Structures are given as C-alpha cells and as structure tokens.
Amino acid sequence: MTQIIKDTEITGKRVILEDACDIGMVTDVFVDTLDWRITKLDVKVEKRYAERLGLEKGLLKKAICPVKIHFLKSVGDVVHLKGDMDDLAKSQKRILPAAERKAAAKASKASSPPPPKAKKASKAPPPPPPVDEDKPRSL
C-alpha cells in the first residue's frame, strides 16, 4: 500500500542509522522531475559525526550530508536509514577529514603530468563509390 507524505512532514524529522546513531535532522527533500521520484535527502549532521563522515563543519552552521534515497529504510516519527556510520561515510566518498582531502587533492594535481594534446585529424576526401560494370550508365 502506497502512502502519500508531504515533504513538510519529512523535513525536521530526526535521522537514525541502524547502529542507533542519531546523526541529525532532515532539511531538504530532492525530487527528480522527470519521473517524480525522491532522489536524495539533505541531513543537517551533528558536529560530532561531521568529521567521521568527512564533512566540513562550520563555526556556526552544522554540516549538510546528502543521503541517497537507497539508504532510506522507513519514515515514521523518525527517519530510519539502512546501514551504519561507516556505510554512510563510504557513500559520501569523503572518508578523509576535510583538511586531509584538500591536501590529497593538491598532491594529486602536483604529481599528475599535463594531459597530452590531441592531434588534428586530416580530412581525406571520401573514396569514390564502386562502379558496377554490368549496369548501364546514364549520360
């Protein structure tokens, strides 16, 4: 049975992982307008979990973590997500703390050689169509 829920009923709900971590609160719901499906949720993450997820934490604002919809387990009084903190961190592809990510990005840019230049392709005329000797030719 399908149940219709307004986005205003989801935003503001607490988000809990399978390992009982109360990581934060839903702030936004994103919908793909081509097929009208929810694609992700934005979760305002508590500061104590932000570094573990590899998110930059602000001085006044909490970090925002985009959560793909396949992590959603159920929505009730709270939003339950599948997996634990490590699964969520892997999905973010931000396992390193922010400072280490920046250093790694700078190091990879410095060590990588510049991309090779593409050669210009010479334009050769197309080959003539094959001639069938048995067919009469028009003049």
Structure notes:
This protein has four helices and six strands. The chain is elongated and about 85 Å long. It has a six-stranded mixed β-sheet with strand order 4-3-2-1-6-5. The mean pLDDT is 77. Strand 2 (22-32) and strand 3 form a beta hairpin. The longest helix is centred in the last third of the chain and has 14 residues, at 98-111. It starts with 6 loop residues before the first helix and ends in a 28-residue tail after the last helix. The protein has a domain at 7-98: SH3 type barrels. It is α+β, with helices and mostly antiparallel strands.
Produce a short descriptive summary.
The chain has 139 residues and is α+β, with helices and mostly antiparallel strands. 22% of the residues lie in helices and 26% in strands. It contains 4 helices and 6 strands; from the N terminus they run H-E-E-E-H-E-E-E-H-H.
- Assign the CATH architecture of the domain at 7-98: Roll
> What overall form do the CA principal axes indicate?
elongated
Structural class: alpha+beta
If helices are DSSP runs of H or I spanning 4 or more residues, what is the number of helices? 4
Radius of gyration: 27 Å
Q: What does the largest sheet look like? A: 6 strands, mixed
Q: Could you give the order of strands across the largest sheet?
A: 4-3-2-1-6-5
Distance between the termini: 75 Å
Helix content: 10-25%
Compressed to H and E, one letter per element, the order equals HEEEHEEEHH
- Contiguous uncertain segments of 5+ residues: none
State mean pLDDT (0 to 100 scale).
77
Report strand %. Answer: 25-35%
- CATH topology name of the domain at 7-98, in short, is SH3 type barrels
Q: What's the CATH C level of the domain at 7-98?
A: Mainly Beta
Q: How many DSSP-defined strands?
A: 6
CATH homologous superfamily name of the domain at 7-98?
PRC-barrel domain
